[in-house]
Amino acid sequence: MAHEHAHTHEGSHDRTVRVKVKRQESPSSGSYWETFELPYEKGLNITSVLQRIAANPQPAGAAESSTPVAYDSNCLEELCGACSMVINGRVRQGCTALVDSLLADGRTDITLEPMTKFPVIRDLVVDRSRFFADLKRAHAWIDVDGYYDRGPGPKMIPQVQDDAYPLSRCMTCGCCMEACPNYGERSPFIGPAVVSQIIYFNAHPTGASAADARLAVLTAEGGIAGCGNAQNCVKVCPKDIPLTTSIAKAGWEATKFAIRRWFTR
User: Fold this and answer.
1) Are residues 37 and 137 in the same domain?
2) 198 and 103 fall within a common domain
3) Mean pLDDT of the chain
4) What is the 3-state secondary structure (H, E, C) of 226-244?
5) Where does a domain end: 102, 126, 150?
6) Which of 72, 86, 192, 235 has the most CB atoms at less than 10 Å from its CB?
């Protein structure tokens, strides 16, 4: 048994991981592929793989070193949403994408690509400015009139808390936008994450003071009417946010708002 264990451990050192990276030097340049090979290590995630490539950016079969692959990363524990990329054809977080899982079922290589719904800045780094601008349009925050202690805020009933908490887990990673067939440069649709944040902040007793401003965004161009109900968003969300529930509620709330606004104009 000891001999068998030693043999397996030794074999893992001989294993090579091939990583194919779609690269782009600038927003205006074309894309190209580079393949890197590195020794297999148990427990590696994609962020660790990119760190090892940065330490030795030597493409497979190339005579000279390349440049380190540019990528976003921060918390390393799926809380910040920075490291979103397309891994083996599926959008997800680099920090929680494990090499062992990615190479399951006999697969021998890993492909890394930038998200396609946002402009590429360099390699795997994309510009999500549009996403953040839409969150500003949607007034995705709670207004305050001062930072002095005013005592306890308004209470939320347990059912509202239970419904709102999952929506608060959004980390603006953009995965749902990448998977949404209705979101992109040719569409003004604000996307599932922004829709869900509108529902989240409108559910807050204090945030409800700006509810009409948020609902106006839902009924404007790019609002909830842009959703085709493909339901891809909820399947790729790394935080298991019930996005389709938010979208359904947004449609109902937008309809009520439009009718009320029509009768009070």
Assistant:
1) no
2) no
3) 92
4) HCCCCCHHHHHCCCCCCHH
5) 126
6) 192
Radius of gyration of the CA atoms of the chain, in A = 23
Q: Is the model's pLDDT at 3 over the cut of 80?
A: no
- Tokens for 248? 């359904």
Which two tokens mark 11? 């074999």
- Which whole-number Å values give the CA distances from 2 to 6, 7, 9, 10, in the listed order? 6, 9, 11, 12
The pTM of the full predicted model, rounded to 2 decimals, is: 0.90
CA 1-42-75 angle, 5° bins: 150
Per the structure, how many domains does the chain have?
2
The closest of 49, 29, 33, 53 to 41, measured between CA atoms, is 49
Q: What is the mean pLDDT of residues 236-250?
A: 97
Whether residue 159 sits in one domain with residue 36: no
Strand order from edge to edge, sheet including 90-93: 31-39, 16-24, 109-113, 84-87, 90-93
In this structure, the answer to whether residues 35 and 112 fall within a common structural domain is yes
Q: What are residue 24's DSSP bridge partners?
A: 31
Residues 133 and 252 in one domain: yes
The range of the structural domain enclosing residue 109 comes to 2-126
CA distances from 34 to 60, 107, 208 (A): 8, 18, 50
Contact (CB, 8 A) for 151 and 207: no
Distance CA 250, CA 237 (A): 18
Residue 8 predicted with pLDDT over 50:
no
Query: For residue 250, what are its two tokens?
Result: 């947004």
